[in-house]
């Protein structure tokens, strides 16, 4: 999972990048994209590791990308630095300023969100128009044209010309014929309100606002990310904070993208794997290795909850909690899967 941070200048993207990753985005100062991977916390992985005491414990990973700062003229578009590098992200985290301070005008989160969202739509409009021109030229030259693609692009243009994001229409946003364009406004979006310290509330964004959202204090979370694990736990306890922004954002991102985790276990390794909710056992096998997918025979499946209740894999087997499933079995969140295959 790769998440791109966007937002207007002054929204706090760099602060939030550091809060989410624990790393300062030095590359951004050189005009380069900043990339960082963090482990997705999962208490089930912790529990499985205690049972198996493996040589390695591997958590799922979340990758964050912060576009490099534009090195252009001072009068360049305020959002010129948003476009490069984020087209290959799975989803976008839109950082929205919801705090004041010295040198800042009063926050206007609704207007800021709309301005940045319209920039994404404008970037997509340019791509869609160029493609439509190419299709028209191909038709004029007698070349075959994909009519499904052309129809979807026409529908896209109707939305984009109104400044509306393509994610408003799931039929367009998820269309396989348009995936190659990597439309920015079609990507799932998490709105992240960068609040004052001590302000836990999201602002009123109006009735048209439909995005998944979360409010955090960027500065506080940035400081928290620099603490040791012990100091961070004490800090959270003292201020009665149940979980960090990093944990909340990861949880919301999984939900936004419709992702789940399954596990493979053993003395050598306990590992979490990320797949789409609704993926089959065959697709889950492919997430591990294409050879396992090609040689798939059966999947031995046990719920993580059933294992915890039984206390051991052998005891779970005695209680009839393990089962053999075929290629079409839909993997559930928390499944422990052992793939039987032959290559």
From TrEMBL:
Keywords: ATP-binding, Nucleotide-binding
GO cellular component: cytoplasm
InterPro entries xref list: Beta-grasp_dom_sf (IPR012675), GTP-bd (IPR006073), P-loop_NTPase (IPR027417), TGS (IPR004095), TGS-like (IPR012676), TGS-like_dom_sf (IPR023192), YchF_C (IPR013029)
GO molecular function terms listed in the Swiss-Prot or TrEMBL record: ATP binding; ATP hydrolysis activity; GTP binding
SUPFAM superfamilies: P-loop containing nucleoside triphosphate hydrolases (SSF52540), TGS-like (SSF81271)
Domain TGS, chain residue ranges per copy: 258-341
Domain of life: Bacteria
Gene3D superfamilies: 3.10.20.30, P-loop containing nucleotide triphosphate hydrolases (3.40.50.300), TGS-like domain (1.10.150.300)
Record-given protein name: TGS domain-containing protein
Organism for this UniProt entry: uncultured Desulfobacteraceae bacterium
């Amino acid at each position: 999972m790769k998440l791109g941070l966007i937002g207007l200048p002054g929204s706090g993207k760099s602060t939030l990048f550091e809060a989410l990753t624990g790393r300062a985005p030095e590359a951004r100062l050189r005009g380069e994209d900043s990339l960082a991977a963090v482990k997705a916390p999962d208490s089930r992985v912790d529990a499985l590791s205690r049972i198996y005491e493996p040589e390695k414990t591997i958590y799922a990973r979340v990758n964050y990308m912060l576009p490099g700062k534009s090195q252009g003229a001072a009068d360049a578009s305020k959002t010129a630095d948003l476009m490069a590098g984020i087209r290959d992200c799975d989803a976008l985290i839109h950082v929205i300023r919801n705090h004041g301070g010295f040198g800042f005008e009063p926050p206007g989160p609704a207007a800021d969100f709309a301005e940045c969202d319209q920039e994404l739509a404008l970037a997509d409009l340019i791509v869609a128009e160029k493609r439509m021109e190419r299709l028209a030229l191909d038709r004029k030259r007698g070349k075959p044209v994909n009519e499904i693609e052309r129809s979807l692009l026409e529908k896209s243009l109707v939305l984009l010309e109104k400044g509306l994001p393509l994610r408003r229409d799931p039929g367009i946003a998820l269309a396989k014929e348009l995936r190659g364009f990597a439309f920015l406004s079609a990507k799932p979006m998490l709105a992240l309100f960068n609040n004052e310290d001590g302000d836990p509330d999201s602002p009123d964004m109006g009735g048209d606002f439909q995005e998944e959202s979360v409010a955090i204090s960027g500065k506080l979370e940035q400081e928290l990310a620099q603490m040791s694990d012990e100091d961070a736990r004490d800090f959270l306890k003292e201020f009665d904070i149940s979980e960090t922004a990093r944990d909340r954002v990861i949880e919301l991102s999984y939900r936004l993208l419709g992702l789940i985790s399954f596990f493979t276990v053993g003395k050598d390794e306990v590992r979490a794997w990320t797949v789409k909710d609704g993926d089959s056992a065959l697709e889950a096998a492919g997430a591990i290795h294409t050879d396992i997918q090609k040689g798939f025979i059966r999947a031995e499946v046990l719920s993580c909850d059933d294992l915890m209740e039984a206390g051991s894999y052998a005891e779970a087997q005695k209680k009839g909690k393990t089962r053999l499933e075929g290629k079409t079995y839909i993997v559930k969140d928390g499944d422990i899967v052992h793939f039987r295959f032959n290559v």
